[in-house]
Amino acid sequence: MAEGALPDLCIRFYQDGDRTQVESFECLPRRGKLSYRPARDAQDVIRDSPSSLDDESLKPEIIVATIGLEVVGVAVFGPDETSDTQFWIFSIGVKPRWQRQQIGTRLKKSVMAECRSRGASAIIQSKVNKYNSPMRNLNEKLGVEATPDPTDGKMFYSVVLVELTDVVDPAWRPRAD
Ligand SMILES: CC(C)(COP(=O)(O)OP(=O)(O)OC[C@H]1O[C@@H](n2cnc3c(N)ncnc32)[C@H](O)[C@@H]1OP(=O)(O)O)[C@@H](O)C(=O)NCCC(=O)NCCS
User: pLDDT digit string (tens) for 6-44?
Assistant: First the structure.
């Protein structure tokens, strides 16, 4: 489905009023795969994220995708402890009913844009379980390359550099002469 096909979709930062929905957020595949570990891990990170907002070591931030009053997708990210320009995406999840409508892609793009907006460039890292083909395919479509994680045989690691390039100069005016 084309991006923008959900006209009511809003991508914004988490607010206190989202807490109940985020803490009970479900993004596991619908039937038959309830023990699907990668999705369960992603869901746990999302559900725990409101209570970890005050965690000074993680400094997590939450972006939600909403349609009307419903939170349909969530992304959790935060700075790398070593640098202000490096970030980790901890989790992205979309409710099963809303999957395959580019919401996950738009959440990931929003996180990348938000991280980049805090400096001239940003490095965004993430890990994905090697059996998590939805997320691996999403990354591939976004052009995010992944390599096997040398520290964990079950995971793939990806790193993206997002740079500010070729912006329109808002101060430009025609010359008077
Ligand atoms: C991974 C996840 C966030 C993707 O969200 P989504 O909104 O459905 O993804 P998108 O619609 O943006 O998909 C973009 C591309 O990813 C790939 N993709 C997404 N879901 C897929 C699936 N179930 N099977 C195969 N490829 C898939 C496709 O290439 C898709 O493009 P297409 O629909 O044009 O073919 C969602 O499946 C999810 O919440 N999974 C459970 C939680 C999880 O595992 N999170 C990732 C670990 S942090």
Answer: 989 999 999 999 999 999 999 987 765 555 788 889 999
Closest-CA residue, ligand 1 atom 7, reads: 104
| Cα gap 24→42, rounded to integer Å | 13
How far apart are alpha carbons 90 and 65 in whole angstroms? Answer: 16
Phi, psi torsion values for 34, nearest 5 degrees: -65, -20
169 Cβ contact partners less than 8 Å away, ≥ 6 residues apart: none
Whether 134 lines ligand 1, by a CB cut-off of 6 Å, is yes
**What tokens does 16 get?**
């206190």
**What is the Å distance from ligand 1's center to 93 Cα?**
9
Return the residue matching tokens 């909403």: 66
Residue 101 Cβ inside 6 Å of ligand 1? The answer reads: yes
What's the pLDDT score for residue 132? 92
Output the pLDDT for position 32: 54
Q: Which domains does the chain have, with CATH numbers?
A: 9-163 (3.40.630.30)
Instruction: Report the nearest atom of ligand 1 relative to the CA of 103.
Output: 7
* Lowest model confidence (mean pLDDT) among 6-20, 90-104, 115-129, 155-169: 155-169
